[in-house]
Amino acid sequence: MIKSTYIISKMDCPSEERLIRMKLDGISAIHDLQFNITERTLIIVHSENNEIERKLKSLDLGSELKEQSVIDWQSAKNKNDVQSKLLWAVLVINFGFFLIEIVAGLFSGSMGLVADSLDMLADAFVYGLSLWAVGSTITRKKKVARLSGYFQLSLAFLGIFEVIRRFIGFEEMPDYRIMIGVSILALIANAICLYLLQKSKSNEAHMKASMIFTSNDVIINAGIILAGFLVLFTQSKYPDLIVGAIVFFIVIRGSVRILKLGK
């Protein structure tokens, strides 16, 4: 078995990692991919195959072979099973809180909660795509990525238009109690997800990316809690709308990254 270490100079966020995974998917010679976004490195364990370097170069991410060696390597099936279970748990929690937050957001009139629910949905999709598409064709994976990306992008733009409408309209102040209460629950849920992911002690990129997504969600939850208190103290709708707009733009950015997977 061959261990090839590549420097990917333009790999600075999880979206590039997902692009590389999608590009290399289907190459039977590859047995393992180990990403390190911080150091911009990719380790590929594979049998002899000249297609790998060509596909990496086609992404134009500045890939360069650093070193190559022959190793003894066995598939870590048990480790992958554990990671799959953790990702399933995170997926269920994210999708569950998408449902809770979308209902609570519509009921309370909080655009912050509605926006965060879409962010939860986006995260659940990222986890679900990896799990659901295992063993399926690259064409199907790309089709699912495109459909989901366009769906989330459409919802996010509708959310932005609603924020603008509420900014210039005479909407009532959102219910800060529901905002704060539901966001605290979401914060706890994301903290549990982060704990589960860290518990895996994995250095692989798809697990690190999941940790990054969840860490960002914790920050968003804290922002909505802060907005809830600002709504209370200022008796104004604007803190909620500002936070909602910020989160909608985060969802748009995530949707664009998902759409790149479908190219």
What does this structure look like?
By secondary structure, the chain is an alpha+beta fold. The chain folds into 2 domains: 2-75, 2-Layer Sandwich (Alpha-Beta Plaits); 78-261, Alpha-lytic protease prodomain-like (Up-down Bundle). 69% of the residues lie in helices and 11% in strands. It contains 8 helices and 4 strands; from the N terminus they run βαββαβαααααα. It has helices at 14-24, 51-58, 77-108, 111-132, 138-168, 176-199, 205-234, 238-261; strands at residues 2-8, 30-36, 41-46, 63-70. Strands 2-3-1-4 form a 4-stranded antiparallel beta sheet, covered by helices on one side. A hairpin with a 4-residue loop joins strand 2 and strand 3 (41-46). The longest helix has 32 residues, at 77-108. It is elongated. It starts with a strand and ends with a helix. The model has no long low-confidence stretch (mean pLDDT 79).
Give the strand order, joined by hyphens, for the main sheet. 2-3-1-4
What shape does the CA trace take? elongated
| SS elements, strand count | 4
Total tally of structural domains: 2
At CATH level 3, the topology of the largest domain is Alpha-lytic protease prodomain-like
